[in-house]
Fold this protein.
Amino acid sequence: MTPGQEVSAWRPPVPGLVEVLHARFTEHRYPMHVHDSWTLLIVDDGAVRYELDRHRRGTPLGTVSLLPPHVPHNGAPATAEGFRKRVLYLDTTQLDTSLTGPAVDGPDITDPLLRDRIGRLHTALAHPGEELEAESRLALVAARLHTHLRPDPPDQPPPPRGLAHDLRDLLDADLLTPPTLAEAGGLLHAHPTALVRAFSSAFGIPPHQYLTARRIDRARRLLLAGQPPAEVATAVGFHDQPHLNRHFRRFLGTTPGRFARPPGSPCPPGQPVRADLTPPSGQTSFAPASPDAHPSRS
């Protein structure tokens, strides 16, 4: 591999995503080429210059670039320092080809909220076991892109009042292998974006956070019953013990191993189990906080 070049790509098990690509280039120049999917690009360092449909374009700092399928484009570093980028390739279930014209006319979008949501989506995709969160965030990203490409969508009726509760019932029915949002949408006859917004509006948290909270609650009971953390992780639906550890500490301020025993010794029979609930440094609350905790906001 060329010095200064890094490439990592994978296909996540998330409906609507064809590929994820993280790369750093200092010298590589893409020749003119096409994709059969949408290319959603953010540049973290440096800048890219490219041509799209015979027009010269670039990626000013902080922008989001969206390149439509089947439209030729290239790409090269805009400076000698190169660039570092993160790319999502979306299939046409997320954005249909009728949006190609607006995307060609304005591929570079300045929208801090959209860029933040894309960054959070990449973070979710980097952790196995966060597929429902990734799917939820993808739905919001796609909806935000629609507002840029088609600013005046036709009025849509509000989701049915029972939609959020129906989705909650589906999640409660199978915490280990819950349906994807696409599958739930098929069962409930609703678009994934409508599911996320209805659920968040009704319950104050998005579906993936509700699912995680339910899994943590079940994990606590199993840990207090003496089950090892590694077994608890897979028993409640987490990918592995590190996956459980990350969320357990975020919710409770301690690890699963420390939760079910007092400091220094095993818990004597008949005594209540106490947890070390000291929040991590700089954290004053155990409630998971996120500036995008309510995806219903645009």
